[in-house]
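TASK: fixed-backbone design
INPUT:
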């Protein structure tokens, strides 16, 4: 794990914004590091400054350097596969959820065992969001419930159930007491974490909503849709602050879009978002026009499970078949998305 291999890979393809494949040219070698997990990687999150957090079907949580692929910590405690991982910005605490119905908190500088357990869901935990100060945690499950926890004591501070609300993802709105949630009932909800009540429900989509993200300024949120054979699979931009209406859609994936993230602003990059799909492609979009700026096909990776933005030009992508891919945005004559490493 973390060891650099001499093997060179050439299995990526680049596409123009209209979907046509570019003519073959010099291919950048992909650095192959030892795998972070045995088997599928189900979730990945960026840590500061150059670390990432990941969970997999091997039931473990790993902390790695995405620059070198070096493994720094491995946490083992779950009895079944890890479904979600997350952390608060600039916090030494990280969190994981699992199919064993359990959520655990781990200390980056502590022992290898969990420092806190959060037990109370009846089915697999599929949503995980921590407050900016890491004092509170919200969790969601296929048992139709959302729970709020005190991270110091492990106490459940609230529990709310909504019929058919099979939670798929949670994320905390920066600087606010609100938590965004997507669901298999095709809706996106905003929860007020103070009373654990629904503050707003966006108009239902046609397909299951699989993931969500919030822009750093708290103005917009994203959701992604399930799909197949070119039907569905879009990402949707919503206005969080004023009208709370749908702003635009980003269409181009042929299967379920499993993950969507806002990219941090860069000096040469227009406001952008990225999406990953079961069709093994990652796409970068112009947030304001809806145009596809770049597409990368990770051939042989299988379904892509999770995306994390490290900085304005670096993405991490978790895959079922081939580990965690490090992707780089290069802005030469045309914006291009390239794979530079995998671990």
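OUTPUT:
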């Amino acid at each position: 794990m973390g060891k650099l291999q001499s093997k060179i890979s050439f299995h990526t393809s680049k596409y123009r914004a209209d979907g046509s494949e570019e003519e073959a040219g010099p291919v950048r070698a992909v650095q192959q590091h030892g795998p972070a997990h045995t088997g599928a990687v189900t979730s990945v999150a960026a840590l500061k400054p150059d670390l990432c957090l990941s969970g997999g079907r091997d039931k473990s949580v790993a902390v790695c350097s995405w620059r070198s692929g070096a493994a720094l910590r491995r946490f083992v405690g779950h009895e079944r596969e890890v479904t979600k991982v997350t952390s608060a910005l600039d916090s030494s605490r990280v969190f994981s959820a699992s199919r064993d119905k359990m959520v655990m908190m781990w200390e980056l500088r502590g022992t290898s065992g969990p420092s806190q357990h959060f037990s109370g869901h009846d089915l697999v935990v599929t949503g995980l969001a921590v407050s900016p100060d890491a004092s509170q945690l919200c969790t969601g499950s296929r048992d139709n419930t959302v729970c709020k926890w005190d991270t110091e004591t492990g106490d459940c501070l609230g529990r709310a159930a909504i019929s058919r609300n099979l939670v798929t993802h949670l994320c905390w709105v920066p600087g606010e007491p609100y938590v965004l949630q997507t669901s298999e009932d095709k809706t996106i909800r905003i929860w007020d974490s103070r009373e654990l009540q629904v503050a707003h429900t966006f108009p239902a989509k046609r397909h299951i909503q699989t993931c969500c993200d919030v822009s750093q300024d708290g103005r917009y949120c994203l959701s992604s849709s399930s799909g197949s054979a070119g039907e569905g699979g879009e990402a949707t931009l919503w206005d969080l602050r004023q009208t709370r209406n749908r702003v635009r859609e980003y269409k181009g994936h042929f299967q379920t879009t499993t993950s969507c993230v806002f990219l941090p602003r860069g000096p040469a990059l227009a406001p952008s978002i990225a999406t990953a799909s079961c069709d093994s492609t990652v796409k970068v979009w112009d947030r304001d026009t809806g145009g596809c700026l770049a597409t990368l096909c990770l051939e042989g990776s299988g379904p892509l499970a999770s995306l994390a933005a490290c900085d304005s030009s670096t993405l991490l992508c978790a895959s079922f078949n081939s580990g965690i891919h490090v992707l780089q945005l290069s802005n030469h004559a045309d914006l291009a998305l390239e794979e530079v490493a995998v671990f």
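COMMENT: The chain has a mean pLDDT of 91.
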